[in-house]
Amino acid sequence: MAHVNDTAVIERLLRTKGRWAIVGLTTNEWRAAYDTSLYIRDRLGMEIIPVNLPADPVHGEIGYAKLADIPAAKQPLDVVDCFVNSRRVGDVVDQAIAAGAKAVWLQLGVIDEAAASRAAAAGLDVVMNACPAQEAPRFGL
Hints:
This protein is an alpha/beta fold. It has five helices and five strands.
């Protein structure tokens, strides 16, 4: 069965201050993750944690190579926001489940029905094929 985003879940995730791990966030200003992560931090008031393979810091925030590297002091992860392609997002979703994240957010164009089902079965909120920066204005944010 195809995943359908729940508008109430989207609104709650966008309104509730929390800690967002942004997977695929790099210093490349041309990537969507760069500006969207600033929106999440500066407009929505969330704490962001960059996650990228070289563990590069981004926007003055310490970076980590994978979700499991994020220290306990920065747990729990409220949302794992996935800026990786659909072929690779399943692994990130599995890492989010293992890390005890509360939600996964798969960005525009990132679609993996099996991964979404695994996350939902594990009790995580799931948003797929959507962008927080595009969804927030619908709720006056």
